[in-house]
Amino acid sequence: MPHLSLGQSLAWWRRWRHRRPFWAGVFTLAGGLTIVLLPANQFTVLMLPGVAGLAGFLLGGLITAIGPLQWFLPDQRILLGITTVLLALAAFIYTNLGGFLLGTLLSIIGGCLSFAWTPDPTPPRTPPRPRPSPAPRARG
Amino acid sequence: MTTGNPTTAGTTVTAGHTRWRRFLGLLTPTLVVVVLMVIGVLNGTLPIAIATEGQQRIKIKINEMTATGYGAFPRFFETQDGEKHTVVVVGLSGVRSSGLCGSGKVDTPIGDYVLRVETKPDGQPFQADDVKLAIENIDGANLAGDTLALNRHDTNANGTPVDSGHPGTLPITVRSVLLDLHADVRWVTTSGLKLSAVDLTAGRNVRECF
């Protein structure tokens, strides 16, 4: 197992982030957790058997699960992004205004970031050219 | 530094970045939908599901109801913060009611929200096999009505009331009653509920029963 120095770890971490819609996952995860957790310390006044109490866990849980999926399945970023946005809109109606709007907005930002993340065109393979000095670049 | 490439699982994954125009292309219509939904909720045209806490004002209007009360017993109710609340659970069984209207008002961050359940005037009576209400405290209860009879459900042939309930239960007969209850209700459960003839409306511009 290679022992990575701090600089190497940071470089690995930076490369890991740049190869996937990282911030999309962060926002989606935060939005999903907000939807799950915000209503949790409250209680339902009228419990109708069915979806009333479950919707928060269902929609919030799905959005929370999609966050890491955006990291580990970056090829599916468009599908995952649109699904996140639709789930976030549904959460607004079915669960406490989607974590009192905060969770819905975070999830929508996450979904849109995932939708908008695009891999750079692959560089030509043949010459093992050294990467140019890591110029600071606007990242999502 | 550039050659130490750790193994990456994704084969097609390369470095990428966010295309902000694409981002706005999805974000803009979504935010339009969100704004429309917020407007819909504020107007009361869009139904939402909300779970909230706090004081409930429950108003019940009953034209005619029969039920069997099978007891009021204390229980504990634990909220997510670990706090235990003592509640009194009121159990009713065999509820049949016509001309029933119940409404509850909830304070939410966007204003009062009213849930109203009403039986249709010419519909079947509202029926439920088992209703339990867990009441934490009652601040004010106003009761006005024509008839409230406890354990006078049945009379024998010559008109003498007879004890008709099962042991330990209390038959209740109610006519034209207005019940205005300001209480913390922790939960309500029903079973064997027949809602076929019931209008259920909720929203900000829904009126309470009275």
UniProtKB/TrEMBL annotation, chain A:
Membrane-traversing stretches: 21-40, 46-66, 78-94
InterPro entries in UniProt: DUF6114 (IPR046096)
Entries under Pfam families matching the protein: DUF6114
Protein origin, superkingdom: Bacteria
Keywords linked to the UniProt accession: Membrane, Transmembrane, Transmembrane helix
Keyword check for tRNA processing: no
Keyword Transmembrane helix set for record: yes
Region (Disordered): 120-140
Protein name: DUF6114 domain-containing protein
Species assigned in the record: Haloechinothrix salitolerans
Automatic annotation (TrEMBL), chain B:
InterPro entries hit by this protein: DUF6230 (IPR046198)
Transmembrane segments: 26-51
Name under which the protein is recorded: DUF6230 family protein
Name of one Pfam family that matches: DUF6230
Keyword flag Transmembrane: yes
Keywords: Membrane, Transmembrane, Transmembrane helix
Organism: Haloechinothrix salitolerans
